[in-house]
Amino acid sequence: MRYPVVASVVVLLTSSPTFAQRAPDSPLLRPTHYDLSIPLDLDGQRMGATARIRLRNDTKYPVRNASLLLYRLLNVRAVRDSAGVPRDFSQRVVAFEDFGKLQANHIQVPLVPALVPGQEITLEVEYGGHVLGYAETGMLYVRDRIDTTYTMLRMDTYGYPQPGYPSMATNRRAGLPEYDYTARITVPASHTVANGGALVERRETGVTVTYVYRSLKPSWRMDFAVARFTTLRAGDLSVFHLPEDSAGAHRILDAMSRTLKLYTRWFGPLRGSAAFAVIEIPDGWGSQADVTSILQSAAAFRDPRRESELYHEISHLWNATSAEWPSPRWDEGLATFLEDVTADSLSGTATTDSSAMRVARWLAGRLAKDSALRTVPLADYGKREMTGYSYSVGSLMFYGLYRVVGHDVFRRIVGEYYRRHQTGGGSSAGFVQVAKDVSPMDLTAFFDDWLFSPRWGTVVTGAKQPADLYERYRRSTRGFSSLAHLLGGPAVLAVHWRSTSGRMPNSRATSLTR
């Protein structure tokens, strides 16, 4: 289907703030529910959409403007209230004040009277246009577009209106949202819409088909992929794959099932629905995880050695939502460490400590060049925009913790933290408290060095062998019998590193015979 070109209405109000690059004069609202209707014209590479968004003022101050962001080529045609009455609005494509290459359509809707703390409002935003990604900004994975070959709409491209200002720092301080959603995506009958929610309806007209998805759990993002997918299902598990990757899809479905069973045994059952989907995405588009789905690169479907990426993303299901913002993202270090621990467990192999030493040497080199790494503790990486190091420093921290407490205590710590904090949100201090409650050993010195100070740098630079990374903390603990007793057998240890800015380059750990 095609849509006529409609000139967007730009209403500039004298009472609304200007678009000068300055601090916002009104707090951001939080979305609590989305109702999306998105017909896609794949041949014309266009979309038309309506988004009904319920917004709440969770701040202590009145909010006088609803500030929203959309992709730079998406134009707002109208804004209405819950009764369908038109609202005044302004829109303008602007560059982010702290990321000049990134542009978005900044929409502001004056709220008269101001929205008081705790109050909600529903806005209906009608918009349309093209989506061509953000690769030109340096965010190479954001290649989202509308196309007959592969279409992707997700939060990274502002494919739907999101509360925000054209300021990365301001949006980070606001934290991640949490909302429910219902989405109706209309595509040609030859294509399939993939999403991590529950498919509650599929309406076919012969020419087009509308997929209706509803969120299974409170979500912080929505991802919609459109292609000529084939779908595999096994109970609550689904894999949306491209036809040429059928063999890999069957392998991934099996690996997903085994991984979920393994983590359930290690960490305990997930809260709520165990439904989960893997959606194949072209290479280079960025693997990501939501609460009920993974966008998984095509390479992982074609190369069994890339299955560790799946372990990484699935392990995030057992992460408690962070109540710290900006989050230090040490959960990425945990997921990175668990990649190889899981691979070893499922394959029956063991890895050497050389993996940990490899990253220790790499970090020692980075310490000599990066003064922030020498002075900022891991717990503050979010505040200092250093979360690229959360993967490496965080993973080495969890390596050390695993070595000190052993497999059984380690898995109990991770599982107990999830159970205590999954609903209300967790923090660095909360994780440490759980670890101290579960472990028979005193972990104060360990976390003081690795999480709450940069003293881990001294440990890393002085390490000549793997034991140097953790042996000192064994000596400082109490009630410790022996690592072999806690493990009930040989330790399964490894750290697999991903290549990215501020992270250690890829390196596979070598095997150690049990």
Question: Your description of this structure?
Answer:
The chain has 514 residues and is α+β, with helices and mostly antiparallel strands. 29% of the residues lie in helices and 26% in strands. The chain is built from 14 helices and 19 strands. A seven-stranded mixed sheet has the order 4-7-2-1-10-13-12, with no helix packed on it. Strands 15-16-17-19-18 form a five-stranded mixed sheet. A four-stranded antiparallel sheet has the order 5-6-3-9, with no helix packed on it. A hairpin with a 3-residue loop joins strand 18 (288-289) and strand 19 (293-297). Helix 2 packs across helix 4 (307-315) and helix 4 (307-315) crosses helix 5 (330-347). The relative contact order is 0.09.
Taking the alpha carbons of the first and last residues, their distance comes to 60 Å
Mean pLDDT: 86
Strand content: 25-35%
Q: Tell me the strand order in the biggest sheet.
A: 4-7-2-1-10-13-12
Task: Give the proportion of residues in helices.
Answer: 25-40%
**Major β-sheet profile:** 7 strands, mixed
Count of alpha and pi helical runs = 14
- Note the overall shape: globular
CA radius of gyration? 24 Å
| Structural class by sheet pairing and helices | alpha+beta
Q: Indicate the low-confidence ranges by residue numbers.
A: 1-23, 478-514
Give the topology, please.
Layout: E1 30-41, E2 46-56, E3 63-71, E4 74-81, E5 90-96, E6 99-115, E7 120-129, E8 151-154, E9 162-163, H1 168-174, E10 180-188, E11 192-194, E12 198-204, E13 208-214, E14 223-227, E15 230-234, E16 237-241, H2 246-267, E17 276-281, E18 288-289, E19 293-297, H3 298-302, H4 307-315, H5 330-347, H6 354-369, H7 371-375, H8 390-405, H9 407-421, H10 428-438, H11 444-450, H12 456-461, H13 471-475, H14 483-487
Parallel strand pairs: 1-10, 16-17, 17-19
Antiparallel strand pairs: 1-2, 2-7, 3-6, 3-9, 4-7, 5-6, 8-14, 10-13, 11-14, 12-13, 15-16, 18-19
